[in-house]
Specification:
Helix content: 40-55%
Number of strands: 12
CATH topology of one domain: Rossmann fold
CATH superfamily of one domain: NAD(P)-binding Rossmann-like Domain
Shape: globular
Length: 299
Amino acid sequence: MSTWLVTGAGGMLGQDLLPRITAAGGTAVGLERSALDITDPAAVGAALDAHAPAVVINCAAWTAVDDAEAKEAEALAVNGTGPRVLAEACAASGAVLIQVSTDYVFDGEAVEPYAEDAPTGPRSAYGRTKLAGERAVLDTLPETGYVVRTAWLYGAGGGNFVRTMIKLEGVKDSLDVVNDQHGQPTWTGDLADRLVQLGSGALAGTAPAGVYHGTSGGQTTWFAFTRVIFGLLGADTGRVRPTTSGAFVRPAPRPSFSVLGHERWAAAGIEPIRDWHDAFVDVFPLLLEAERGTRITGR
């Protein structure tokens, strides 16, 4: 029975990963940010020595996209240096490393899904720092390093767009939501399943190292997605009104096109994630329960 180490285990994705690793027959060790500073080589080395993982999945990241514009050095330490430290430790121990990355490594201006080998061109500090982490892993671990890019994540274990919209539906008469950003809403549970399958394939020698895209199939916009949320809540979808990104100017530019292709999964014998709408309808009750619990607790 192999041991799997998950960094950033207290986050939304990490919370869904741990039980899936256990269900797949592995021993899951989750370390939250307070328990492991991935930028500290001594701490990382000690953690790998103590737990001797066969697979490390790095979910630790600086995810404050706008803050990264003014604090790029700090973001780079977590998103770039941290993965390099983990990769060097995995190279020394022989562990497989799976690095969770982002669609922000692309320029966001495509009109067709980005293939795994499409040229990168980040337009934000966040994207640049995540790309640095990708390169560190792939350069250090050419045979045992994996990068899984994802986007538009939602889950029951943390704050996200879906839970925000559920909350706002109860307090807003209407909502203006951007209709010029295209992407693939992706449930953390579905992504966690693929990460476990990929790690298992890596150990079995059936999953080639390199880049994979871990997003749902299909595509939508934030506006259309919100209308689906309102519909599942039994609310009037007409209360959701389309607007443009220009109405919500932020320090970091948002990609207008975050749709990723999934061809590489076939090389590992793994099915890509299902269509975003099918997944969302399936798991919406879990998200609604999580948000309603938050409301009750906060009263």
